[in-house]
Amino acid sequence: MKKLIINMLKIILPILLLAAAPGITTPATPKATPKTAPEKVSPVCGPYVQNPEPDGFTVLWETNMDAMAWVEVAPDDGSHFYNRDRKRYFDLRGLGNQYIGTMHKIRIDGLEPGTTYRYRIMMKGVLDFTGTGNPRYTKPWGNDVYKGHPYTFTTPAADRDTLRFDIYNDIHQRDADLDRLMKAAAKEKPDFVLFNGDMTSSLISRDLIRDTWLRTAAANLEGITPMYVLRGNHELRGRHASAWMDYNDLPEGLPYRTASWGKFFLIFLDTLEDKPDSDIEYGGTMLSEPYLKAQAEWLEKVVESDGCRNAAVRLVFAHIPPDRNGWQGDRNVEEYFVPILNKAGITAMFCGHLHQWRIDNPGQRSSANFPVVINPNCRRMEVTASPEGLSLKVFDLDGAQTQSWSCPAR
Ligand SMILES: [Fe+2]
Ligand SMILES: [Fe+2]
């Protein structure tokens, strides 16, 4: 028995001693092998410019990976961009943190009206950020200002008395057609471009907006010409309809908004779907009424504002035109918005949606006391406005003029 106990102790003791030794009781967890070839960060869409104001503008772009981003801004004073450190603007959506994501929206503010600035987009990809305070970055990337040129942007002058803009709508994902239309207009430099809805047909994936028109639009506008984007009824459709908000800079978080360009006051409306919410096409996803009501309350305040009342010309933009005998969407515009707009002295309203050219004279199809201009699908409408009135031309895919129209201001 004594011999048996001694033999058992010979086996157990070394194990107990080994277990008691510090640092070797638990095998260390193998460390993750660091990536040997870091990915490079680069833009996959943009930059593009939205919400131009006399004192600022917003630069947006998408990166191929999660990144932190900033914009460097320099005056257009003839100095080289590398002349000195340039003022940096960051994405403030991190609310105290640096914002990390693939979609970057950076507001440049504190600028002088009617002044040209140069800018450069900058980013560093975030490779690993699994713990706390240990992010690992790619080498930073910025657009070339050594041999290449920085982007430029001119803030709207407060006293400007002409306005030139182009409208595209109802492209419905025909990216090549949009490219043709925009390339044909490349020599024309409008003050801004409006994409007035139905640029896509159904947002069945998040990337559809980028891949079917936005990347093309951004490339043609070269980070210089600002764009406004409104939703068409088709941008309400699909599981990824909310991606539309990701790709746009929404003041107050809302698609409807106003803008002032010198003597011109612009109202952008969000007209939602075209059929009743209960229609089988929407599968129970629509909830129009509270949103339209809130928008109408906002519009009441807009038409009473000094900006609207003091402007020489007031223009309205919306995807769906008003029509008292039309579909639910047309009737919504007629009933929610037109009575309010009738108090404002609107010169004209610009719509799409119908896929055909049409001018609705005041009172013709709605109670509007202003004309409603409907741009056909896959066309470019070129508008010139002054305090005397406005004139427009419509061009087809071959660059041939197909329509023209003009009206006095009121
Ligand atoms: Fe359409
Ligand atoms: Fe439409």
Low-confidence parts = 12-30
Q: What ligands does this structure carry?
A: fe (ii) ion
Q: Span from first to last CA?
A: 115 Å
Number of domains: 2
CA-atom Rg in angstroms: 28 Å
Describe the 3D structure.
The protein has 410 residues and is an alpha+beta fold. It folds into 2 domains: 43-154, Sandwich (Immunoglobulin-like), CATH 2.60.40; 163-408, Purple Acid Phosphatase, chain A, domain 2 (4-Layer Sandwich), CATH 3.60.21. The protein contains 7 helices and 20 strands. The protein has helices spanning 2-20, 175-184, 208-221, 243-246, 288-304, 306-309, 328-341, and strands spanning 43-53, 56-75, 87-90, 101-108, 116-128, 136-137, 141-142, 151-154, 163-168, 192-196, 227-230, 257-261, 264-268, 313-317, 348-351, 358-360, 372-374, 380-386, 389-395, 401-408. The strands form 3 sheets. Strands 1, 2, 3, 4, 5, 6, 7 and 8 form an 8-stranded antiparallel sheet that branches. A hairpin with a 2-residue loop joins strand 12 and strand 13 (264-268). Helix 2 (175-184) packs parallel to helix 3. It is globular. Mean pLDDT is 91; it is low at 12-30. It binds fe (ii) ion (2 copies). One fe (ii) ion (FE2) is lined by residues 197-198, 232-234, 319, 353.
Q: Summary?
A:
The chain has 410 residues and is of the alpha+beta class. It contains seven helices and 20 strands. Helix 2 (175-184) runs parallel beside helix 3 and helix 5 (288-304) runs parallel beside helix 7 (328-341).
Present the secondary structure layout:
Blueprint: H1 2-20, E1 43-53, E2 56-75, E3 87-90, E4 101-108, E5 116-128, E6 136-137, E7 141-142, E8 151-154, E9 163-168, H2 175-184, E10 192-196, H3 208-221, E11 227-230, H4 243-246, E12 257-261, E13 264-268, H5 288-304, H6 306-309, E14 313-317, H7 328-341, E15 348-351, E16 358-360, E17 372-374, E18 380-386, E19 389-395, E20 401-408
